[in-house]
Write a structure and sequence with these properties.
CATH superfamily of the largest domain: Hypothetical protein, domain 2
CATH class of the largest domain: Mainly Alpha
Radius of gyration: 23 Å
Strand content: 5-15%
CATH architecture of the largest domain: Orthogonal Bundle
Structural class: alpha+beta
Largest sheet: 6 strands, antiparallel
Helix content: 40-55%
Shape: globular
Strand order of the largest sheet: 5-6-10-9-8-7
Number of strands: 10
Distance between the termini: 65 Å
């Protein structure tokens, strides 16, 4: 029996009207397949719109490919970040899409993803086809193809290296999938030589220079200020030229991402057209090319490049209290964790202390409990990722003495490390409500800590630390329950509302911390 077509955010007539009006606000939220040409486009494609009888609409790029359509060479629908509707959802489908996006199928296969989600492979495939229009393997192949297309477009790597970096098992598979997705062989796709460079560094670690696309507007200054305010010694470096460098935990060891903030169009005084896409210049130093996709995914999460700023601003801009903030900071993003474990443990260290004190404690934790790395797995000047099991093996007294904590804080830190080492999942693909319950059950973990972990580690766009001191001051100092009531109209984007309320404080903190 053929499953019913997946749900769309609009009915057919409304989708056609949006596409006919080239409404960029719907880019990434649905796609247009043209039966007469066999291609699919984003709604804002400048090409002449086909007759309604030649149109089919899909909720994802993978669904278009699964139905036999190829990507349009003019509007580049694969270059538009995917919808954040799946990030808002906490159900099985939302979790599955997030985990596939994060490379779960590449790492463990469909069977491994199904086990992680506690469902059968058959049920996982059925529900994804019903809701998204494509099965898990098709979603994973589309993810690889889009990553490869970005590397072709933004680097001068040889095609064989791009195939390997994007996760393809062979050049033959690479060629077949790219022809299916784009209608031409990889060698026929245009390249932008001179915009990005790549090559080995002095210690044989591969280097990639990319321009990562995101929807405009993008508040680069606010995102950078947040990264500066939360920079951890030994894991982040703030450059005198305005750039920032960040250690990333990938399969082969520690990668490093360098973001050139001064070259972002809006940061350089070249405002991008509202609703267009802009590029964020990022240089990656990798243990190996096979770590490229994971590093790119982490950077996209850290910089919140897959957000839909127009959708969020429309949701929050209608509120009288938030409207001036949204107008003042268009394109404000919510930076997510590079490492769920690091962020969760760091949040406990940051309880009831200043940002500066929290960074000092996190730096001590990173220095003492970094995984030992050698050779190309190590990044010069940076600590490796946290060894959570090693933290869990320490006693509370040992942690208190080593890190300079109170006994109660040391006990909470150890309890959380034991839970994480035992399998508690607080990553972006986890069951958010289950993670919240497990966190809240730990002694010393209160509502503020739970919501802060939800916001940054779980990447929940609707997390809301109602008891946060800075947040309450920005709201006029209401009690936490009153702050909860105030924020009800902001759902499901309370995390972004919180970022707006924090923005001035973070900008001030970043200025103080610059050398």
């Amino acid at each position: 029996m053929t499953p019913p077509p997946p749900a769309l955010p609009l009915d057919f007539d409304a989708c056609y009207r949006a596409a006919s009006g080239r409404d960029g606000r719907w880019d990434g939220r649905f796609y247009l397949g043209v039966t007469s040409t066999g291609i699919y486009c984003r709604p804002s494609c400048p090409a002449r719109k086909p007759l309604p009888g030649n149109c089919r609409f899909f909720p994802s790029a993978a669904a278009c490919v699964a139905s036999g359509f190829r990507a349009c060479k003019r509007c580049r629908p694969e270059a538009v970040p995917g919808t954040r509707e799946w990030d808002v959802r906490g159900d099985l489908v939302g979790r599955a899409v997030r985990r596939i996006r994060d490379g779960a199928v590449d790492a463990a296969g469909v069977a491994g993803l199904a086990r992680e989600l506690a469902v059968s492979e058959r049920h996982l495939r059925r529900i994804l086809i019903e809701e998204v229009g494509a099965g898990p393997l098709q979603l994973a192949l589309t993810r690889r193809a889009h990553a490869a297309r970005a590397l072709i477009d933004e680097t001068d790597l040889p095609l064989a290296d791009i195939a390997f970096a994007a996760g393809f098992g062979s050049l033959r598979q690479f060629g077949e999938v790219m022809r299916e997705q784009f209608g031409v062989a990889p060698s026929k796709l245009a390249r932008r030589h001179g915009e990005a460079a790549s090559g080995p560094s002095s210690d044989e670690r591969p280097m990639l220079a990319l321009r990562m696309r995101t929807r405009a507007p993008y508040d680069a200054a606010a995102l950078r200020a947040s990264l500066v305010a939360h920079a951890i010694p030994g894991r982040d470096v703030i450059g005198l030229d305005g750039s920032t460098e960040h250690a990333l935990d990938v399969g082969g060891g520690t990668a490093v991402a360098r973001v050139h903030w001064g070259e972002v169009p809006e940061a350089a005084g070249e405002p991008a057209e509202h609703g267009a896409t802009i590029a964020i210049p990022v240089a990656l130093e990798l243990p190996s090319l096979s770590d490229a996709m994971r590093a790119i995914e982490i950077v996209r999460q850290m910089l919140d490049l897959d957000a839909d700023p127009l959708q969020i601003s429309e949701a929050l801009g209608a509120d009288p209290q938030l409207a001036p903030l949204v107008t003042a900071r268009p394109g404000l993003r919510m930076p997510a964790a590079r490492s769920a474990h690091e962020t969760a443990l760091g949040t406990v260290l940051g309880q009831q202390v200043s940002l500066a004190a929290a960074r000092t404690l996190q730096g001590r934790l990173a220095a003492r409990f970094a995984r030992p790395l050698t050779g190309v797995a190590a990044a010069a000047g940076f600590h490796g990722g946290l060894d959570v099991a090693a933290i869990a093996r320490e006693s509370a007294d040992e942690l208190r003495e080593a890190l300079g904590l109170t006994r109660s804080r040391a006990e909470t830190l150890r309890s959380l490390a034991v839970a994480l080492a035992g399998g508690l999942d607080v990553s972006a693909g986890a069951d958010r409500e289950h993670a919240r319950r497990e966190l809240a059950a730990l002694r010393g973990v209160g509502p503020w800590t739970v919501e802060m972990i939800a916001m940054r580690a779980l990447a929940d766009p609707d997390a809301y630390p109602a008891g946060d001191l800075i947040l309450r001051r920005a709201l006029g100092d209401p009690a936490p329950r009153a702050a909860e009531r105030i924020a009800e109209p902001w759902r499901p984007y309370r995390s972004y509302a919180t970022q707006h309320l924090w923005a001035d404080f973070l900008a001030s903190s970043a200025r103080k911390d610059l050398v």
